[in-house]
Amino acid sequence: MQDFLGHFKETNIYPYKNRNYSGWAYLKKAMLAAFVLLAGLVFYFLFSAYFNAVAAKNNLAKASQEFRTAKLENGGKFLAKSQANFEKAKSSLEKLKIFSYLPPFKKDFLAAESILTIGGEATAAVNKLFIIVGAALPKDQSAEVSFSALSADERKKIFESIIENKSGLGEVKGNIDRAFLAYGAMPGGGFFNLEKKFGSELDKFLTIGREAQTLLSIIEIMPELAGYTEDKTYLFLLQNNTELRPGGGFIGTYGTVKVGGGEIKSFFTSDVYALDRLAIGTVKIEPPAPLKRYLGVNYWYMRDANWSPDFSVSAAKVEDFYHQEGGLEKIDGVIAITPDVVADVLRILGPIKIEDQEFTADNLTDALEYRVEVGFAEKGIPRAQRKEIIGVLAKIILERIYALPLSDWPAVISALGTGLLEKHIMLTAKDAAAQAILDREDWSGKVKETASDYLMTVDANLNALKSDPEVARGVYYRITRDSERYLAAAALSYKHSGKRDWKTGRYRSYTRLFAPLGSKLISVTQDGGKDERTKDAEVGEDLGKTYFGIFLTVEIGGAREVTFRYELPERIKYQIEQNLYSLLVEKQPGTIANRLTLELDFGKRIREARPEKITAGNPNIYNYVTDLRVDRMFTVGF
What confidence score (pLDDT) does residue 240 get? Predict the structure, then answer.
């Protein structure tokens, strides 16, 4: 025993007799070793979860690709691999649950759990969707069979299967919704900062969920819209967004579409002026003041009826004009598209040749516009028949879509989904259940109700020319604090890069800016404050918002900036004081991707934001630059 104690004394490990010993030094070394070991374990299992999640995402992307080409069996194999990857990732994460409360890794654990939740829910959603779609398709048909080749009984069975699986569709939607919630709750920062490392991957990852969600909703509403239970008649509008109007674009062509049993029974189109001419002298409706003042019209007709940026309001007004001007069909809903949708479909179908004119995805808008505005006269076609080519083109497109193999239908549905998301396709329905789905999915073009801060700019081209593609637009939105008030300034910029020709000229627009209800206009200035326009501005309320309107012109080769300054209402100030601010920016239907820049100075430190601000800079200012291809939502916490 004495020899044993002596060994400890000689090696300076025996603590009670060695005066040179420092207990704190040994303790620090032991703590450091334990921390390194602990960090190593956390690192190993976190990255095991990370790499398995990446593998799961890659397999899910492959499954989605197989699904897009209707190869359900192959898609199922990749899904099985994806689910196995997620299970391994979850297992790795569970081993580290005890360490999840340590400050260096807490955010990493929360982020990792969010990633795994997203993956698991998305995998489950796509898997269930595969089963539903597989059950709907005829068992003895390959993916190469076309919809037109299916018998009436086979089409009927597809709709019956969809109706029978409505509860399953609801489950899929629940999975996708939970995936998006997990994405919204994922924190940034942490030792590994998984959100930053995974951010771009997660965006791609969730694209699969968005596509599935679009397909899900289309499947859900298809039996009703396609006239499965009873025939339907829809009013069709081709809204020309090269001549932008509040509801999407000038209504140059209208028509009626009759559907029943999942197929189009008839599709009639005509020049809107042919119908409007019938109403001259009998329909005498006072137009909105800007139409009368700046377009010089004394009466309001169907061609100008989409004056509201809320398409559900415009659609009802268009239908009312249709009947007042002599339209006889009982209407079950309204469908509106812009030429952009047709171009996207032509990218799938390929070029279409009519007589000596070939229409492609790239030349469609210009070629069609020239034909109905100028070319018809060159060919000796009567003016009353100049737009008949649109009906011919529509018929060929529909025939080609119906003749596509089922393996190509997902691409068509994806194109339609993009059109719906970007408000180049909008629909309304008289059936209450169908309309509820359209509103829920934001496919009816309805302006959203919100108690938060709000912004929407709405242009109305009042020069009767097709100049809009030549005019680049941007919105610069700024908030500052002034004593006890929060002031907003929205600068709308226009740059006209076109050249004068048969379709392009000076740009003339009656422009409205929609802000939160109760906003108080302070001033309207033009071109950097050089030109005071406050007295010219119209102030009003519509759609649960306050709006400010002004007429502006932009010369060819010129630029213009109009700035609206206003005080935000008390409730927005209260939200900021309660340390949470949100802003909804809605795009005008028919617009492409107007630039949006935010500079929001709240006079208090920003704790978190979605999306994250793009510059470090001042901690009190939220900066972000994006586009308005779709509606945008921003939240800031203090």
Answer: 97
Q: Which residues pair with 256 in a beta bridge?
A: 235, 268
- φ, ψ at 343 (rounded to 5°): -60, -40
- Cβ-Cβ contacts under 8 Å for 159 (sequence gap 6 or more): 222, 223, 226, 228, 262
Please give the C-alpha separations between residue 382 and each of 95, 343, 367, 372, 388, in angstroms, as whole numbers.
Answer: 78, 27, 18, 11, 10
Q: Where are the beta strands (DSSP E) in 556-594?
A: 559-567, 580-585
Main-chain dihedrals φ then ψ at residue 561, nearest 5 degrees: -135, 130
Identify the CA nearest to 441 among candidates 184, 627, 628, 221: 221
Q: Count Cβ atoms within 10 A of the Cβ of residue 30 and give its class: 0-12 exposed, 13-18 middle, 19 or more buried.
A: exposed
State pLDDT tens for residues 409-429.
Answer: 778 888 898 999 999 999 999
Contact 511, 538 (CB under 8 A): no
Per-position DSSP letters for 359-370, written without gaps between them: E-TTTHHHHHHH
First to last CA, the chain: 66
DSSP assignments along 19-79, one per residue: TT--HHHHHHHHHHHHHHHHHHHHHHHHHHHHHHHHHHHHHHHHHHHHHHTT-HHHHHHHH
Percent helix, percent strand, percent coil in the chain, to nearest 5: 45, 25, 30
Copy the structure tokens of residue 342: 């047709």
Q: Taking Cα atoms as reference points, which of 501, 540, 464 lies closest to residue 245?
A: 464
Residue 350, sorted as left (phi over 0), alpha (psi -120 to 50) or beta, turns out to be left
Q: Return d(Cα 220, Cα 262) in angstroms, integer.
A: 14
CATH 2.60.40 segments of the chain? 453-637
Options 2.40.440, 2.40.70, 1.10.3470, 2.60.40; CATH for 453-637 is: 2.60.40
Check: CB of residue 452 under 8 Å from CB of residue 583: yes
Vertex 588, ends 586 and 589: CA angle to 5°?
120
pLDDT band at 531 (very low <50, low <70, confident <90, very high): confident
**Sheet of 453-458: strands edge to edge?**
538-542, 545-554, 507-516, 453-458, 580-585, 632-637, 608-610
Residue 5, pLDDT score: 41
Please state the length of the chain: 638
The Cα–Cα gap between 389 and 159 comes to: 33
d(CA 618, CA 355): 62
In CATH, what is the architecture of 232-440? Answer: 3-Layer(aba) Sandwich (3.40)
Peptide bond into 382 cis (omega under 30): no
Q: Where in the chain is CATH 3.40.630?
A: 232-440
Which strand ranges, in their side-by-side order, compose the sheet holding 520-526? 531-532, 520-526, 559-567, 485-496, 471-482, 595-601, 621-627
What is the distance, to the nearest Å, from the Cα of residue 156 to the centroid of all Cα atoms in its chain? Answer: 32
pLDDT digits (tens, 9 = 90+) for 276-325: 999 999 999 999 999 999 999 999 999 999 999 999 999 999 999 999 99
Structure tokens at 533: 């326009």
Q: Are strands 471-482 and 595-601 parallel, antiparallel or unpaired?
A: parallel
Q: How far apart are CA 489 and CA 546, in angstroms?
A: 15
Both structure tokens of 42: 């956390």
d(CA 111, CA 199): 11
Torsion sign (Cα): 309, 315, 321, 322: positive
Count CA within 13 A, CB hemisphere, residue 354. 16
